[in-house]
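Holo prediction. Input below; ligand is (2R)-2,3-dihydroxypropanoic acid.
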Amino acid sequence: MSKPVVLVTRKLPQAVEARLLRDYQPRLNPDDALYDRDELIKRAKGADAIVPCHTEHFDARLFERLPKSVKIIANYSVGYDHVDTEAAKQAGVVVTNTPGVLNDATAEIVMLLILGAARRAGEGEKLVRTAAWKDWSPAFMVGTQVTGKTLGIVGLGRVGKVVAIRARGFGMKIIYHNPRRQADEAGAIYYETLEDMLPHCEFLSLNAPNLPSTRGMLNAARIALLPEGAIVVNAARGTLVDDDALIAGLKAGKPRAAGLDVYNNEPDIDPRYRELPNTFLLPHIGSATAETRDAMGFRALDNLDAFFAGKEPRDRVA
Ligand code: DGY
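Structure of the complex:
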């Protein structure tokens, strides 16, 4: 039997591509070009599977045009908000993601955002890099201490729990809000409503998925509930934030600072974020470690292997 044909939309780590070449007939993307809709459809002709990233959007219109040969979309990502799962079901296409393998890397980035925003790392780095650093004084570059503060986590899931454990290493008190209380709370204290939790959040970390219920959740009314000096970080999805509200808040000093790795409309983010001195900005690199990028690829391939062996892929989401 001939090996299944797999369209891989972006350049993947070498070890992952080696396994693809061993077990499949992959259509690789050595130049790492970003395929537009037409290009994607063209390249998918005759393919049995697609391994995409969150950079490709599989909406209902795309599913209408997707060649019928495509039976599975094995995402190279844990988030699958770029895939319309209802449209996939209607088209009879299986969808999988890569949960679990990004937790440590993403929690590291959350800690970096917390530290970077609190200790003004972006401003400090710019001063040194541009030779604008001229002096030292007790008033110079004073930030917010992280140790011993209260961290509120919105979305105590796989990543949120690792954030709770890492943050405890800084002596932080951890509180959380989820729609439902978790069986494994990773030592965090539960708040039934976000509104009740926010006034206690000296730091607030957004770790929820992009869902209709979470979109724009950090809005002006909720920002107003934060305590003075609060710092907000987001390494989950930009859609959780109402940009107008956060930017207005940052300009007015509440929150005092924000550390962001994800944004609405990436990579064409709201340019006002760049102008604010109290933002610490990263380019969606939560999972960007060599170890994790390999693990994501292997997990996507495990899902493909199961599917083509006639088994249920472990990470099936549609
Ligand atoms: C994920 O896996 O969801 C990361 O955000 C990268 O896409």
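The longest helix spans residues 290-308. That is the main takeaway for now.
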